[in-house]
Amino acid sequence: MAVSPVGEYQPGTTVLHRLPVGTKLLGLVGLSIVAVAFRGPWTTGGLLVLAVAFSLAARVRLARAARALRGVLVAMSLLAAWQVWQRGWEHAFVVVGALVALVLLATVFTTTTSVERMIDAVTRWLKPLRRFGVRPDLVALAFSLMIRGIPLTLEIAAETRDAARARGLERNPRAYLTPLVIRVVAHARATGDALHARGIGDD
Amino acid sequence: MSRIELDQVVVRADTPGGPVPEVTVLQETTLDLTEQRIALIGPNGSGKSTLARLVNGLVEPTAGRVVVDGLDVSRKGREVRRRVGFVFTDPTAQLVMPTVAEDVGLSLRHHVKDRHDRAAAALAVLESYGLSELADRSVHTLSGGQRQLLALAGVLATDPAILVADEPTTLLDLRNAQKIGDLLFGLPQQLVLATHDLDLALRCDRAILIDEGTVVADGAPAGVVAHYRAMVG
After folding, report:
1. Range B9-15 average pLDDT
2. Are β-strands B162-166 and B22-33 bridged in parallel, bridged antiparallel, or unpaired?
3. Which of A12, A122, A202, B199 has the most CB atoms at less than 10 Å from its CB?
């Protein structure tokens, strides 16, 4: 079964679970700016320590998070190898370490914040834009559909890959990509029908 | 009891790029549905899903009109959808939120504004369907039976007057199909059930057999099911 690479919400009562969504998001944005503006080994080291501390404080299941972030970690390893070869160990640590820390912090955010709370926050933040025709509840719903869509697309991709393998076509990208795109689009249409049937977006 | 009227309804579908410009999915059909449980049966592609989808405006008639409790579906779609709940064959597309409780909460958004009250209401709904232990689970990790039960709970959370179910047991194993079937037949709502399960059809008050977009039999389920068996046999 595919696991979402953006992490899945884990219910809990830790301080990080109780913090307002805006505070957590601003913190994440702030730390991202710090990582870019004050680039260096000390900053990266600090961010890594902070990310691990927050993960422990939020009781993020690190094994599960590592499994979910497997693809990201592979990409990071390749990037690290490239950086070591091109610019040396220190530069590789600064760049890749900061990225790993930010991914881990983002995982802390998603695992401590339910989508419903995110939707409420997005709806609240977008309320002033109502006068310009923006529908905050619909934007928030699109946001949640995007999050829900990631593991679902991975599941469809895995099924499609298995189907191609079963027909001995695992080396044929068309046999994999064409049904994948068709199934994802069909799923999107079915979701649209389901939302329509539930009266969501009617008012 | 609710009333669903189809008045000379025709549904045609475009076939872009195909050799035939239009396909008539449902031939001119006039029906007055007042019974509590109505089964729509027929072969694949016969038009029964189209007929079911007409009831809450998922499909618009090309000609004629569909009226639900006095409301024209084409004109008063929003009001009709508040009265008509719809359950799909594949619940995966119907479950749009990441966790079980959040998905039921989505159904309740227009009914319960406060987040905490909504969470409590969602939990109460889940409890009534024996799903409360799954409240915080990702919908992605549920079994097929649990997903269909959740989809049904999400629809029934808003207490619709009519429930339309489009082959809700087709993807389920025998035990889950029986569970969903029993649940559907225990509901106080008017039920329109498109199904291949003839045992379920026999439990209805009325059955309608559709073939190639035409109603070929309509009446007591025993007679209509016998007609269907003779037709395919």
Report:
1. 84
2. unpaired
3. A122
Confidence of residue B41 (pLDDT cuts 50, 70, 90): very high
Q: How far is B121 from chain A (nearest CA, A)?
A: 14
CATH code of B4-232, in short, is 3.40.50.300
Query: B108 to each of A199, B37, B152, B156, how far by Cα in Å?
Result: 11, 26, 14, 10
The two structure tokens encoding residue B147: 């997903």
- Strand B71-72 and strand B190-194: the pairing is unpaired
pLDDT surpassing 90 at residue B113:
no
- Look at B88 and A194 and tell me if their CB atoms are within 8 Å: yes
Q: Are B150 and B171 in contact (CB under 8 A)?
A: no
Predicted confidence at residue B19, as pLDDT, reads 59
Angstroms from A125 CA to nearest CA on chain B: 16
Over residues B118-147, the mean pLDDT reads 89
Domain boundaries, chain B: 4-232
B86/A198 touch (CB, cutoff 8 Å), yes or no: yes
Q: Are A8 and A17 in contact (CB under 8 A)?
A: no
